[in-house]
Recover the amino acids of this structure.
């Protein structure tokens, strides 16, 4: 009598295989050239299984053979190497600011292959979407014909609903409930996976994956992009909240007798340390506020007017450190320049208000990825479906994207 086949066995085996393909590809994406021996040890699989996975990823155009790396145990022979395919898949990353937008074609391994930037003309979402679409076409035009585009990731200075990418509120753009991903796709005239997230969340993601927070399980990225926000990595995972709105630290009550905030409250931390407060202190023209980081970079020494703001930055950080107990706080956006200029005041404000136990374990750091933290975070987000299921992602990728976008 023939044995009755177990229901779903083939399906489960296929799911495991695709999971292993994604895990191997993620490893090479994060660590660069790897030997098959390293992959065998890191994934806990045998050599023949690793060889099969590598061969399939090679056939999908995601990885290629590299020079032998190291030596295999006992035999003294070099282990075959695996690297990102030179003409492999790519994503388009979009860093949407208040006054400008940066778009880049980013390959596996986090390599920025081409970028374009422009001042945003007009404030309506459809106008900005048209600008973004034009830059996407520009950075994709010279991509190799064999390289598939697997997604678009968009960073937004506002609150983004996790379930569908709807921008609930981007106060400095004056956007409310905007489906910006759909607007961009309509302007492009193509159907490609698009994902959106808050800029600070994406800064935290990239700095955790390949920046100042590599190997750190608890990290906070403080974003200074006119407004103030935070991206939180807790226990190695992004802290998003029920709707995706976690990290709005700029609206913590800091000074009950302070200035009105655009959110409707009084004395939010953002009113004390945000771009407008800093610009007012140094008499920076209002039209230069979106470029505040560049303005601050022009100072070799801190103006006296910034010292009080430095203390307020440190005191506000103390509340965040007390709540989340991070190991590293990355000072992104204009906070990077502020930390260079008024480091003593920020450090002292943090020391004065932080609980001793939490203060002992935290350090403040500049973003290791510089001003590309958010841009590369958008790329990491766009790549995620590829790592979840490389077969599906590459099978549905737009191979002829140049011709379709040109049309």
């Amino acid at each position: 009598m023939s044995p009755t086949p177990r229901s779903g066995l083939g399906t489960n085996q296929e799911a495991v295989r695709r999971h292993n393909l994604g895990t191997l590809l993620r490893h090479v994406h994060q660590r660069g050239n790897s030997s098959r021996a390293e992959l065998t040890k890191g994934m806990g699989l045998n050599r023949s299984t690793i060889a099969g996975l590598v061969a399939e990823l090679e056939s999908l155009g995601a990885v290629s053979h590299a020079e032998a790396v190291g030596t295999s145990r006992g035999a003294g022979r070099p282990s075959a190497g695996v690297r990102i395919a030179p003409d492999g898949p790519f994503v388009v990353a979009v860093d949407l600011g208040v006054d400008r937008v940066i778009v880049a074609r980013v390959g596996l391994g986090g390599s920025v292959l081409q970028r374009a930037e422009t001042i945003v003309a007009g404030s309506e979402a459809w106008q900005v979407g048209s600008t973004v679409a034009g830059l996407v076409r520009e950075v994709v035009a010279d991509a190799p014909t064999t390289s598939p585009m697997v997604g678009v990731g968009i960073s937004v200075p506002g609150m983004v609903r996790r379930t569908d990418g709807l921008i609930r509120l981007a106060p400095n753009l004056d956007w409310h409930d905007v489906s910006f991903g759909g607007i961009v796709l309509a302007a492009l005239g193509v159907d490609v996976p698009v994902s959106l997230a808050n800029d600070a969340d994406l800064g935290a993601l990239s700095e955790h994956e390949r920046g100042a927070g590599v190997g750190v399980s608890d990290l906070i990225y403080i974003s200074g992009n006119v407004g103030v926000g935070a991206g939180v990595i807790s226990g190695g995972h992004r802290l998003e909240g029920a709707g995706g709105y976690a990290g709005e630290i700029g609206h913590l009550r800091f000074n009950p007798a302070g200035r009105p905030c655009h959110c409707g409250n009084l004395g939010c931390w953002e009113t004390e340390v945000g771009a407008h407060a800093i610009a007012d202190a140094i008499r920076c023209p209002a039209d230069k506020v979106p470029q505040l980081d560049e303005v601050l970079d022009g100072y070799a020494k801190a103006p006296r007017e910034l010292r009080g703001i430095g203390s307020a930055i440190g005191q506000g950080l103390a509340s965040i450190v007390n709540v989340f107990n991070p190991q590293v706080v990355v000072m992104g956006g204009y906070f990077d320049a502020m930390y260079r200029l008024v480091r003593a005041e920020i450090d002292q404000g943090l020391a004065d208000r932080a609980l001793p136990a939490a203060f002992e374990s935290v350090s403040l750091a500049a973003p290791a990825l510089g001003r590309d933290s958010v841009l590369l975070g958008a790329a990491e987000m766009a790549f995620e479906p590829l790592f979840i299921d490389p077969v599906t992602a590459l099978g549905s990728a737009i191979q002829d994207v140049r011709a379709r976008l040109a049309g």
Remarks:
- The first strand starts at residue 34 and ends at 35.
- Residues 176 and 277 are 24 Å apart (CA to CA).
- Residues 9-31 form the longest helix (23 residues).
- The mean pLDDT is 91.
